[in-house]
Each structure stands twice: as structure tokens, then as C-alpha cells.
Specification:
2 copies of one chain form a homodimer.
Chain A (H helix, E strand, L loop, with lengths): L5 E4 L3 E7 L2 E8 L1 H9 L5 E8 L8 H4 L4 E8 L5 E6 L6 E7 L19 E4 L4 H10 L5 E5 L2 H6 L1 H8 L4 E5 H8 L4 H9 L5 E5 L5 E5 L3 E4 L13 H15 L6 H18 L6 H4 L3 H15 L8
Parallel strand pairs in A: 1-4, 1-8, 2-6, 4-5, 8-9, 9-10, 10-11
Antiparallel strand pairs in A: 2-3, 6-7, 11-12, 12-13
Helix pairs in contact in A: 1-8, 3-5, 6-7, 8-9, 9-11
């Protein structure tokens, strides 16, 4: 039995990143790259994105080797989307230095033959109207999830709220959830997003892991305590990739218990991403390594014994 | 079989606290008050501290009712220790507005008859030399733990390092651990503290829970996701109280598994503390309520199933 298919739409970028541990320029980045590198460890991934003529197609050889379908990757005349960011010692706070949309400016997602039947859909943090264009083209996915960012919360709230009503799950950073809901309480923020339609909200907390809220409860997945976090870029998208990758690989109903396990997969994969710059660690990451860390998570989160013992 | 005894030494204070949810003045505070209110839900607690003649002894009636031994509470002519703090919407960051040592200035811990045989010892965040005075008076405790704060890290580093070498466990805030070890990595910081002698380091992470590091591994306990955190004051000391209270109540060897369970008790108790100002919630907290939340922790942290399923 093969895994179900995953469709991802979002950005592929050239990143400049500076952290207290080093500096890289013009390296592969973008939400779609991170998501795909993570999810393709589990299931077949179909990519919808755009790159400029300055990015060689061989960039994606490592993804092709993992069976990724790149027919939806448009190549446009011009320069690839670029992003520059800096992190201080508090690696939870990103300081965006520049954003050059370039070929992304005129991008509209076109789904190649067969993509519309994908079982799982991840709309990375692109403009909410583009997310809607993707969702409207898709037929009956088993699960759809969208991510978003502060820019759309500030400038495209109406469209964002509409998109939230079209998906099964919303993922966003804790600080973005607070901003969106205008409250310091993440529990209240999650409730307000759930009221817009999605069945679950995934709050990403950086080096403090992630929390999932549903109508009936919540689940907390910590981040893997690492000696060194070299570059937090892409942690959230790799988390989403591991999360959805596991769901696509899983056969059977998506119960709360399956979603909890998927969160641990997400945290396990993301813990590798941040160990090196760009996608360097994800490129050579193996399932056996993720499996080892998955087991570690059980060891350091589960406690035995009753209240009195 | 009765629970083992706990000795706590630290401050009793009048606090002024301001948070986005309200403001209180001249309310009961201090590390010892919070610790004792939490630990006394589990085991007999002996208190060593000092108050001024402005604090009525009836203040502690609710602790006496829980069997707390207050013979070590000195009453000195003058004003009780006072602390004023403010929290912004980011309730993890405390802004200390004032500290008035008052009767605390000349305080030295004197252990009444019998206290020196206590099984468990908690030195709250007082001057490291005072902590040493307590530890030197005690005979063979089963487990000793010290807390500390940024002030001593900055001004009394030598004494602090000595005290760390005298205890079984060190608890401190994540940011203080980073400051102490001069690194952004909490894993590295914990390793450096372990190298000074203690067998375990408890890093408190505010609304992100706590992590324990030992030579052989770590355990992560998240905070209970709360709709509203009204006042984070005392969360760390109530955590320590629930943690040590459970250990004192537990019969048998203190294994890693027992320590993990104790951390969940600490997080469960602390989650109540922050729901109201001062010790208001702790005053009327029952074991049944803590037990319910302990069960909740298992539900929202444990995941079932293997890597591939």
C-alpha cells in the first residue's frame, strides 16, 4: 500500500541568513522547499511554486530523488524570490532584512494534470487569495492546512479569514495568533480561529515546540532540546512537512491520537532542520534518524505512575 | 506511613504587583510563602524566614491548618521585606519596580530543634551564603535543592558556585541559566551547571514549562495551557513546592521516573498559582483539583503508536 499524495503551494527562495553562529548568502530557502524536503521523507509530494531563470533546475535533484513531482514548478524569466533575515541570540525572533518578490509578483498557482486529486494540501504562507485559488481547484482532499504570516494578518485580514474558513487546519506562529486575535492568551486566540471554521489550530512556538487546539482539547509537543540551533529558518515549514507527511503515510482514519503522533513527527524533523543552515541537514536526513528522535520524544515527555504513588 | 519532612528557607514578603489583568498592593508574597503553600498540599513543611512586626501572624493561619511548622519564622522589629513588580502582556518578563530588604537585611537562618533532620531541603533564591548556612546546619537530607536569581549571578558568583556544589539539584529560570553560563544554548548552560556538582538542573521556562537535565538525559514538562494568566508571580516557587512535595510524599527510591512525575506535579500546582493574584488560588487549592490537572497532563503530552503505523 502506498502513501497518499501531498500537494504544497508556496515559495521557493534564495535566502541570505545571519545568526550568531554564521552567515550564508544566496542559499536555497522558501516555505515550499523546507516543507517538501521534510514531507518527501514520508510520502509523494507535488510542488506548485515559481522560480526565476537564475535558479538551476538541478537545485531540486535531491527532491527528485525522493520522488517529488515538480511539474507544477513554474520557471519565469527573471530573478527568484529573495529573502534576507537575521536572528539574534534569542532565536525565536526573526528580523527580516529584505524581501524581493521578483518572479513571485505575478505568480498564480496552476495545477498540472492530476494535482487536483491530491489527498493532502498544504498552503504555505503565501497571499490568502492565492491560497484560495489552490483550494478552489482541488477536489475533496482528505485534509487541507494553511499557514500564514504577520504581513497578511496586517494587510489582508478579510481574505485571510475567508481562507481560514475553507481549510481543515490552520498553522501559525504563537505571536501571529496573538496578533490575529488581539489577545495575549494563546488559548483564547486559538478559540477565536477555531470559531472561523477550521477543525484544528496548530500554534508553532519556536524553540518551545507546538500546541494543537481542537474543539475538545489540546496537545502539547515540545521542541527537541538541542545543544546548538544554528539557523531556525524553515523550522515551521519542516514541522508542517513532517506533520502532514506522517498523515499521508498513515493508513486509516485520522483520529486525535494520529494527529498527536503527527505533531511529534513534525517536531522531530524540524529539530534537524535548525541544526544547520538552509536545507543542509534536511538534504541528507534519513528516516532512521527521524525515527530515533521520535523515540527520544517518548522518553522525555512520557511519565509513568499515578497521582499518588 | 507519613510523608517525609521538608525544610524551606527564603523570603516572606509584601508584594505590589501589576499585570495587564489588574493590580494588587501589600499582598502576601515571597518565595517561601508560595513554596510552602504548594508543598504543604503533600507533606509537612518547616519554614525558616523572617517577617517584620507589621505582618500579623494570622497571615499564616491557612498554612498552619495544613500542618506547616512555623517555629522557624522569626519576627523582627520593623517592616517586612517588600517587592514590587510589573508584567507586560509577555508575562514571561518581570519588571522589578522596587525591592525593600527591611528586616531581611540582618537575617540569618536559625534552625529550631528538629529542623536539621529534615529529609528534603529547599533553599529559595536568597543570598548564596545564607543558603550555605542552612545546608551546613542540616544532616544528611535525602535531597537538597537551591534556587537562585539574576542578582546573585551578577554580584555573588563565587559564593553561588560554591552553593551549587553543595546541593543535589539547582533550579533556575532559563534566562538566568543562560546568563550564568554565558551561552544562548540552555542545553550547554545546564551541562555547565551539572559540571559544578549537582545531579540535576531544573530549568524553569515560565509559560513554556520546565526542563530537567541530568548527566544521562532530560525530561520536558510543558506548562498547562491556560485561558488566562492573571499573575505569574510565584509560579517558579510553587513549581518547586509541588515538585518537592511529591518527592517527600513518595515512598521509595527517587528514580528518574519519580523525578519526572514530580515535575508534572510542580507544573500542575503552578498552573493554579498564576490563575489569580498573590496566593489567592493556592489558599483554597485542593489535592483533588491538582490530581485532575495531573491527569490532564498525561492526556495532552502522551502519544501512542510507533514511528510507522
Amino acid at each position: 500500500m502506498t502513501a497518499s499524495s501531498i500537494l504544497v503551494v508556496g515559495s521557493v527562495a534564495y535566502d541570505d541568513v545571519e545568526t550568531p553562529f554564521g552567515k550564508v548568502e544566496h542559499v536555497l530557502g522558501g516555505s515550499t522547499s523546507y516543507f517538501t524536503a521534510a514531507a518527501s521523507l514520508y510520502a509523494p509530494v507535488r510542488v506548485v511554486s515559481v522560480i526565476g531563470s537564475d535558479m538551476p533546475l538541478s537545485t531540486f535533484d535531491f527532491l527528485r530523488e525522493r520522488g517529488v513531482d515538480l511539474r507544477g514548478l513554474q520557471v519565469a524569466e527573471g530573478k527568484t524570490f529573495r529573502w534576507g533575515g537575521r536572528y539574534d541570540y534569542d532565536l525565536n525572533a526573526t528580523d527580516t532584512l529584505f524581501t524581493e518578490l521578483n518572479v513571485y509578483a505575478g505568480f498564480h498557482p496552476d495545477l498540472p494534470e492530476g494535482y487536483a486529486d491530491s489527498d493532502f494540501i498544504f498552503c504555505a504562507n503565501i497571499h490568502p487569495v492565492l491560497q484560495q485559488e489552490v483550494l478552489q481547484q482541488c477536489r475533496r482532499p482528505r485534509l487541507s492546512m494553511m499557514d500564514t504570516m504577520n504581513l497578511w494578518i496586517e494587510t489582508e485580514r478579510k481574505a485571510l479569514v475567508e481562507t481560514m474558513g475553507m481549510v481543515d487546519m490552520v498553522s501559525l506562529n504563537e505571536s501571529e495568533a496573538r496578533m490575529f486575535a488581539g489577545t495575549s492568551s494563546v488559548v483564547t486566540a486559538a478559540r477565536r480561529i477555531l470559531a472561523l471554521g477550521p477543525k484544528a489550530v496548530l500554534l508553532k512556538k519556536g524553540e518551545n515546540g507546538a500546541v494543537m487546539f481542537t474543539e475538545t482539547g489540546f496537545f502539547v509537543a515540545p521542541a527537541y532540546p538541542l545543544e546548538e540551533v544554528r539557523d531556525p529558518t524553515g523550522a515551521g515549514d519542516s514541522f508542517a512537512g513532517g506533520f502532514m507527511g506522517y498523515l499521508a503515510q498513515h493508513h486509516g482514519e485520522i483520529t486525535p491520537s494520529v494527529l498527536h503522533r503527527a505533531m511529534i513527527h513534525g517536531c522531530a524533523v524540524a529539530s534537524f532542520t535548525v541544526e544547520e543552515f538552509s536545507l543542509d541537514r534536511l538534504r541528507r536526513l534519513t528516516r532512521a534518524e527521524v525515527e530515533q528522535r521520535y523515540r527520544d520524544f517518548r522518553r522525555f515527555t512520557h511519565f509513568e505512575g499515578e497521582f499518588v504513588e
